[in-house]
Amino acid sequence: DQYRTEVEQWKPTSMQEVEAFRLRFLVAKGLIKNLFEEFKTVSVEEKRMLGKVLNEFKQFTESRFATMKEKFSAAQPTVKRAVEDLTLPGPGFNAGAHHPLSIVRKEIVEIFKKLGFIVAEGPEIEDDWHNFTALNFPEEHPARDMQDTFFIRKGAGNDIALRTHTSSVQVRMMEQGKPPFRAIMPGRVYRNEAISARAHCFFHQVEGLYIDEGVSFADLKQTLYHFVQELYGAGTQVRFRPSYFPFTEPSAEMDISCTICKGAGCNMCKYTGWVEILGCGMVDPNVLENSGIDAKKYTGFAFGMGIERITNLKYEIKDLRLFSENDIRFLQQFETEV
Ligand code: PHE
């Protein structure tokens, strides 16, 4: 009777407790086997009486065990746990990672924010005026050619295209506001190029614009120098090479000392020790006037960089196509980044 009460009161809450039940009562050295051993030693009269009780007890225990086992088999445990404590958090799942281009864009934005630059955005589908004409592109400039630009609608004096750079946002900003302007424009741009490790039909830019009274080329150099120290670490060298853009005069391209080989020579910098990261210059007075800014009163600088290039140098990524293929093996490597 005492054992029967024990069996009845065995209310398991897990598969382990069901197993404990089995070990206590049903295995070769368990309680029931022992009782049967003891049974052999009692007198004939007692055997008659006890035999029935013991067999009943054995059957009862076995059927209890079968019921318990069924209850805890298969999917039961999770259901049971949820019922026990509804306030427990659900099972964890993989939250994914930020895309490397997003990580680097954010870093760039943070650096310029500290210098007082705001973030401006504009449309990816742009008209000829904002993408080219206002930016002082001559009528026959090759960038307007079908080879570089994805046109959506041609003709009627104002072609519609996918923007080829985010300089278009600078024009929109100047048209809509009053100086001073201090802003950066991150965004996706499109160019009609064959897709390879080094070129893609779309990429991402961050352009910057600073217009005020008395802004000089020295301001441009110091701003970009500071940016590079923040992004790639103190001691990164910069150099400016004269260049040409229709919308800036004078114009330059800025190189930095190769972040990968530190100037020792590698594939990334083609053994020169330098890599180009951006174009820049003083905003051409024509562009200011086209956008309704008094070019006699205001001057300013602009710059533009490709986020892909900046990211490649930070993470030693050698193939542009990785950014848009969404290969999980690539993306997972950035899980620990901010
Ligand atoms: N818009 C240029 C490009 O797409 C970059 C640039 C921006 C150069 C501003 C100078 C000044 O290549």
TrEMBL record:
What keywords appear on the UniProt entry? Aminoacyl-tRNA synthetase, ATP-binding, Cytoplasm, Ligase, Magnesium, Metal-binding, Nucleotide-binding, Protein biosynthesis
Chain coiled-coil ranges: none
The entry lists its GO molecular-function terms as: ligase activity
Boundaries of every Aminoacyl-transfer RNA synthetases class-II family profile domain copy: 104-313
PROSITE patterns per UniProt:
AA_TRNA_LIGASE_II
Q: Which cofactor does it need?
A: Mg(2+)
Would the keyword Nucleotide-binding turn up in this protein's UniProt record?
yes
Q: What is its main location?
A: cytoplasm
Intracellular or extracellular location(s): Cytoplasm
Q: How is the cofactor bound?
A: Binds 2 magnesium ions per tetramer.
Task: Write down the chemical reaction(s) this protein catalyses.
Answer: tRNA(Phe) + L-phenylalanine + ATP = L-phenylalanyl-tRNA(Phe) + AMP + diphosphate + H(+)
* Classification via InterPro entries: aa-tRNA-synth_II, aa-tRNA-synth_II/BPL/LPL, Phe-tRNA-synth_IIc_asu, Phe-tRNA_ligase_II_N, Phe_tRNA_ligase_alpha1_bac, Phenylalanyl-tRNA_Synthase, tRNA-bd_arm
EC number(s) in its UniProt entry? 6.1.1.20
Specify one Pfam family: tRNA-synt_2d
**Residues engaged in binding Mg(2+):** 249
The signal peptide stretch is: none
Self-association and partners:
Tetramer of two alpha and two beta subunits.
UniProt-listed NCBIfam families: pheS
User: What family does the Swiss-Prot or TrEMBL record give for this protein?
Assistant: Belongs to the class-II aminoacyl-tRNA synthetase family. Phe-tRNA synthetase alpha subunit type 1 subfamily.
Q: What's the name of the protein? A: Phenylalanine--tRNA ligase alpha subunit
Species source reads: Olivibacter ginsenosidimutans
